[in-house]
Amino acid sequence: MQGVTKRFPGAKGADPVVAVDGVDLEIRDGEFFSLLGPSGCGKTTTLRMIAGFEYPTAGSVQIFGEEVGLEPPNRRPVNTVFQSYALFPHMTVEENVGFGLQMKKVDRDEAARRVADVIDLVQLQGRESRKPKQLSGGQQQRVALARALVNHPKVLLLDEPLGALDLKLRQAMQVELKQLQERVGITFVYVTHDQEEALTMSDRIAVMDGGKLLQVGGPGAIYDRPRTRFVADFIGDTNLLRATAEDPGSARLPDGTAIRLEHHAAPGSDLMVAIRPEHVGLRATDADRDLTLDAIDGEVALVTFLGNATLYEVVGDRGDPPTRVRIRQGNAPGVQHFGVGDRVRVRWAPSSATVLED
Ligand code: ADP
Ligand code: MG
Q1: What is the mean pLDDT of the segment spanning 23-41?
Q2: Residue 320 pLDDT more than 90?
Q3: How far, in Å, CA of 38 to CA of 287, rounded?
Q4: Does the domain made of 2-9+16-232 have the CATH classification 3.40.190.10?
Q5: According to the 3-state scheme, what is the secondary structure of 103-151?
Q6: DSSP bridge partners of 261
Q7: Closest alpha carbon to 3 in 205, 211, 218, 204
Q8: Where exactly are the structural domains of the chain?
Q9: Is the pLDDT at 286 greater than 90, yes or no?
Q10: Model-level pTM?
Q11: What is the C-alpha separation between 80 and 47, in angstroms, rounded?
């Protein structure tokens, strides 16, 4: 997509809605690519422009180098799977999957072979004669997948396909979908507002907000090196600390604490630094008010048990307002635990502090 914008006419008298705003995006052949962002950020509209259900107001959409921006859906090598499976209730699994091929007048033997192949692929063997009502939610979603894959698309578009499933099943299906994508080897473009889902399945992720692409990268890069405050906040949990740049590679928090950064900014400039809760360590301290490098001394203000970890909130001694940091510690044997009111020192490695662009 190059410079793709989509404007919808506003409701009576209202301004037009800019659903997608100047998006430049290149998705690689064979990758599992996710569009991630909050509700209303333009994910579905972007996907629908790839599918051909919407035409861009401006810009170009190409698939394998061919301009398709104004082509109808059936002239594009893509298929879409929606959250509402949209299966025909009166047809069996086999009939649902084969319907498109029948419409296209594909030879009967070939159609039967292709239907059997994709039913195997999504592991619905033995359920060919069931009606959708006789299947679980996860199985219905697999029928919807098979129905899309039977057309041998070069790109499969999926719009929150697991949204209707409960958490456990959704997690199981995430693994299945990823494995399926690896087996068939085609490009998947996956829309979700669920950051965990995107991190689990994707080769690369595009984070969107307000119709714009904010950052594109692998799950690790997006998580460890968010570029903006929005991305840092939207993906996972994060500590945001204000700081003022000093000498190259160092800065000072408002409370006077000196910190080191793998980042060079003009001395005196205001910075926002993001640090993941699991990248800060916690230990007991009784020493007070020595200005230790990359460390905040303070008091435990809140303890939340998370099962596989414990989340601590620590309020720094110095500064106004006090620095508040969140720390996520594993529950492995030997990890020291703290209670509300305990005196602690919070430390981190300079490499885990990211300076945000905004
Ligand atoms: P998402 O899928 O990220 O939730 P959408 O792409 O569905 O977001 O919508 C992006 C914005 O465009 C929203 O503000 C939505 O209300 C608006 N929008 C989407 N489709 C239409 C339409 N057909 N007419 C008018 N506004 C629309
Ligand atoms: Mg949507």
Answers
A1: 97
A2: no
A3: 44
A4: no
A5: HCCCCHHHHHHHHHHHHHHCCCCCCCCCCHHHCCHHHHHHHHHHHHHCC
A6: none
A7: 211
A8: 2-9+16-232, 237-355
A9: no
A10: 0.90
A11: 9
Which ligand has the minimum distance to the alpha carbon of residue 38?
1
pLDDT band (50, 70, 90) for residue 295:
confident
Out of 10-24, 33-47, 269-283, the most confident range is: 33-47
Question: How sure is the predictor about 114, in pLDDT bands with cuts at 50, 70 and 90?
Answer: very high
8 CB near ligand 1 (under 6 Å) = yes
Mutate which of 41, 45, 209, 212 for ligand 1? The one with the most ligand atoms within 8 Å of its CB, which is 45
Cis bond upstream, residue 73 (ω within 30):
no
Query: What CATH superfamily is the domain 237-355?
Result: Nucleic acid-binding proteins (2.40.50.140)
Q: Is the CB of 169 under 6 A from ligand 1?
A: no
Q: Are strands 324-330 and 309-316 parallel, antiparallel or unpaired?
A: antiparallel
| Cα 83-84-89 angle, rounded to 5 deg | 145
What pLDDT does 248 receive?
A: 86
